[in-house]
Amino acid sequence: MSNGGGNDRRLRSSNWFELDDLNGFLHRSWLKTEGVTDAAFRGRPVIGICNSWSELTTCNVHLREMATAVKRGVLQSGGFPLEFPVISLSEPLMKPTTMLYRNLMAMDVEESLRAHPLDGVVLLTGCDKTQPASLMGAASADIPAIVVTGGPMLSGHWNNEELGSCSDCFRFYDERRAGRLSDKEWSGLEGALMRSNGHCMTMGTASTMACVTEALGMGPPGGAAPPAVDSRRYQTAETAGRMVVDLVARGIRPSDIMTAEAFENAVRVLHAIGGSTNAVIHLIAIAGRVGIDLPLQRFDELSESTPWLVNLKPSGSYLMEDFFYAGGVPAVMAELGSLVHGDALTVSGKTVAENIADASVVNREVIASRQEPFGPDGALVVLRGNLCPDGAVFKRTACDPSLLVHEGEAVVFENISDLLARIDDPDLEVRADSVLVLKNAGPVGAPGMPEWGHLPIPAKLLKEGVRDMVRISDARMSGTSYGAVVLHVAPESAIGGPLALVRDGDRIRLDVPARRLNLVVDDAELEERRRAFVPPATPDERGYRRLFRENVLQANEGCDFAFLRGRSSVLEEARTYGS
Prior knowledge:
This protein is of the alpha/beta class. It folds into three domains: 47-154 and 196-371, no CATH class; 156-192, no CATH class; 384-540, IlvD/EDD C-terminal domain-like (Glucose Oxidase, domain 1). It contains 22 helices and 14 strands. It has helices at 14-17, 22-31, 38-41, 63-76, 99-115, 130-141, 167-177, 183-192, 205-216, 231-250, 254-257, 260-272, 278-289, 296-303, 320-326, 328-336, 352-355, 416-422, 459-463, 523-532, 543-551, 570-577, and strands at residues 46-51, 80-85, 120-125, 145-149, 156-158, 161-163, 380-383, 392-395, 405-413, 435-438, 471-473, 485-487, 507-511, 516-520. β10, α19 and β11 (471-473) form a beta-alpha-beta unit. α4 crosses α10 (231-250), α6 packs parallel to α13 and α9 (205-216) runs antiparallel to α12 (260-272). It is globular and about 75 Å long.
């Protein structure tokens, strides 16, 4: 059914609905219990609408209405839409982290597509992990697919200031911990910061993944940035419904779109927009599902030749509404020009070059020109050294520039409980030039690699006016966070990575321009510590959590399960098992 794999255009759903036997009879008969006739589905492409709507996932709570818009588009183009739910991942409410369940949702999406009579699918996503999980599942199923995100919420407003979630959450929480924000002000912020449907309106992980999904070619052109409550968000959903029917007719599958060149486009846009560090892990995992090797080093190589173009929090000043009005992803890709692969295919059925031919920048304060960027190179860099032999990630556009080269003594926290118990202790031995280190927060150690990497600055330093300091962990960080924070240290401490060997008082040297992160301790001493290392005890877990701990890959490999990487053959399965 691929445009490169032959001329067979037989609908996959025909293996369920066009058979003249008992199974065909039963499939049609059961579907007719929904009140439809043969004319609704026989001979028509059956389009799934994979909906991550949930009242527990506040970012996605409006996706039911968006599904209605998708259905309109599918019907307009002669398809038959069927909406179905999958597990939904709520960044605000799930503990210890949605990252623990990203792979579970990806499996849910993949198996739902594999098992049902679907010729194509529109994936409705929004909150951080619902986007990569849906893409991972769709990549593995490899039937024609489009991702439509729910869009960012409206900008927050308080005390005549425009606010973004949750970059300003962190900022004002530090002010409260420092004693500079009253209870009344804190309460007022709570109702003013997040005031509509949609995901975070900063360039956090949800906004970043929406942008890189569009850059990857898997989202409708211009679809990443319209606010969740904007009518154009619903118009995008309707358009996607028409597009997916066309993809089915043309046999264009995710593996035709998500090529090595497409992933390079996505990485370029990630750097240009000042995107979330989380996107590095997700893009590596998605690439692995289509059999493409996307090494961590490639992110750093592309960073060196990609200008930083987008002035959004937490790296800049503006929010997603402003980004949409300024031109969105098409304008950014047009500015990148020859740096992107213009001949890459997209879900519109057109190439990137065709999609962005008429794109232009409306506001240069939000989207800079390639000739006069906000920075000469990309937002993210990859660090190496004896503390992170398999790499670590650092967002240089969102920290105090004075900390890009720094050496200081380590203040070590063995786990998140230790950190929470001591970080605001007035007797904590810490200075502004100290390096805060958190262990056992990685994929295995936490488990799930939670967003604990934005270690809070000790309260006594906040009161002295300290606003940033070097922090290191094997955890992730919210895409809305900021600071001189080293993340994704690999291998992680729980499995014996060098981070496990760090002790209070050890000197650590960070050199971002040189891409180095080193523990300044004699090799012989480190070897002695390594021999004495004892892995932390793990709970006696069952079910999915046990599956996760036993199979999760490290951060530099995308934190996927090894047994889920590589290409699949769902279309061929349909012919074998569909009847």
